[in-house]
Amino acid sequence: xxxxxxxxxxxxxxxxxxxxxxxxxxxxxxxxxxxxxxxxxxxxxxxxxxxxxxxxxxxxxxxxxxxxxxxxxxxxxxxxxxxxxxxxxxxxxxxxxxxxxxxxxxxxxxxxxxxxxxxxxxxxxxxxxxxxxxxxxxxxxxxxxxxxxxxxxxxxxxxxxxxxxxxxxxxxxxxxxxxxxxxxxxxxxxxxxxxxxxxxxxxxxxxxxxxxxxxxxxxxxxxxxxxxxxxxxxxxxxxxxxxxxxxxxxxxxxxx
Length: 256
Hints:
Blueprint (H helix, E strand, L loop, with lengths): L17 E4 L12 H17 L8 H15 L2 H9 L3 H8 L5 H4 L6 H7 L3 E5 L4 H11 L7 E3 L5 E2 L2 E2 L5 H11 L6 E5 L2 H10 L2 E5 L26 E3 L9 H4 L7
Parallel strand pairs: 1-2, 1-6, 2-3, 6-7, 7-8
Antiparallel strand pairs: 4-5
Helix pairs in contact: 1-2, 2-3
């Protein structure tokens, strides 16, 4: 598994940007079928955890717990680990285990060409598990364009799981990539993650084409109107529009 390793791409200029790409609903359309499947698996899992050992918890209890933990910790998983002794690896395997995953993926053509056109290093930074994200990357045909693949299993700081939007995680990523925040650009569909990145001084690009109001995955929760907030430097419908917005993203030392 690729984790927070030191970059070895010596041919990239020291002043070049480092792109931190999210995966789901950024590089492919997870809302089409994958998120609903994950949500169904997650609800079944939580109902079993919160049940009495014989009868699963009711829908209302499951929804309340999932929403509470996501709001409090930034990820439902963290609440289940903290309050119910759930093993993160077991939860991730159960919720992201889909026999027909590859048939569920929807994406744009030309993602490889896009990644080649963008100057600098590309890092995949996803709150999804490594096995799942590896399968999606391979299906998209873009794995070779990323120097590093950081999945949720690698998002530990001082032994604690710290997925996005954790500032501690983003600082650790920068240390291991040997870059300052002003050289980093986070490309995401999730505003909470972009807000944290902006607070640290990173560039931020918001991808909106796959967002749905009322999306079943809590981390998505787009606003009713897709208005660019102040902590987003660039709002694009598709990642394929990023090359046209480089001028705005290069407002920092990236322009040097």
